[in-house]
Write a structure and sequence with these properties.
The structure is a single chain. The protein folds into 2 domains: 123 residues, SMI1/KNR4-like, CATH 3.40.1580; 87 residues, 2-Layer Sandwich (TATA-Binding Protein), CATH 3.30.310. The chain is an alpha+beta fold and 224 residues long. Helices cover 32% and strands 24% of the residues. The chain contains 7 helices and 12 strands. A hairpin with a 6-residue loop joins strand 3 and strand 4. Strands 1, 2, 3, 4, 5 and 6 form a 6-stranded antiparallel beta sheet that branches. It comes from Chitinophaga hostae. This is SMI1 / KNR4 family (SUKH-1). InterPro entries: Knr4/Smi1-like_sf (IPR037883).
Length: 224
């Protein structure tokens, strides 16, 4: 399944609904920057780029009016919710259809790490991460020690399929049929330090809660 279809399925977005920017707006961006953006990034902005739930629930896809180059010539198009991290594509790689995406924590934007090997993988990982962090209707998370036992983690890995090779960050993604998302956050040594889940399907959410049997720090069904 194409990554745009995966995102639409998770967020219950119909194929015929318009969630993107008009092509003329992207043409104007390219005129302003005097570059052509990669085909994969163009397709995303045209298809889903204007959907705030997918792209602005936690981390944020940059609007077309804000996209620009860093001092060291990375086209910056995504930012962490407190702007601690920025993500972009090297100017020299813009001619590629699906180039790697780099991130930086450095205030001078001089040190970049490879976040994802392709733009499509990066955008998919952000849609999943944003969904688990509140973009989806039903979410929960925990970093409680009693929820991070080997038995609890085995309940994740044994009941959901891991989506490998999506992100180079310390995140592990799991899903069943792309109708839910589970994210394990980890330490450098692969030790799990957090569990985040999300879905737009209430029955699926209840199944997740029952299967994982965790205490949880937060659950949307406990909101008052």
């Amino acid at each position: 399944m194409h990554y745009l279809q995966i995102i639409r399925k998770l967020y219950n977005l119909t194929e015929d609904a318009n969630h993107g920017y008009p092509e003329a707006a992207i043409d104007a961006l390219e005129d302003r920057l005097q570059v052509k953006i990669p085909a994969s990034l163009r397709q995303y902005y045209l298809s889903l780029g204007n959907n705030k739930v997918v792209n602005d629930s936690f981390n944020r896809l940059t609007s077309l009016g804000e996209i620009g180059f860093s001092e060291d010539e990375h086209l910056v198009f995504y930012e962490e919710n407190q702007a601690v991290v920025l993500w972009g594509i090297e100017k020299a790689a813009l001619q590629l259809d699906n180039p790697p995406v780099y991130g930086t924590y450095d205030s001078g934007r001089a040190e970049w790490f490879t976040d994802a090997d392709t733009t499509e993988h990066f955008l998919l990982s952000m849609a999943w991460w944003n969904g688990a962090l509140g973009g989806l209707t039903h979410t929960a998370f925990t970093d409680l020690e009693e929820d991070l036992t080997a038995t609890h983690i085995a309940a994740v890995t044994g009941n959901w399929e891991e989506q490998k090779g999506i992100s180079n960050q310390l995140l592990r993604f799991f899903t069943n049929d792309y109708e839910d998302i589970l994210v394990l956050t980890t330490e450098q040594d692969a030790q799990v330090n957090g569990v985040y889940i999300g879905t737009n399907n209430e029955a699926r959410f209840n199944f997740m809660l029952q299967t994982l049997n965790m205490e949880w720090c937060y659950r949307t069904d406990r909101d008052e």
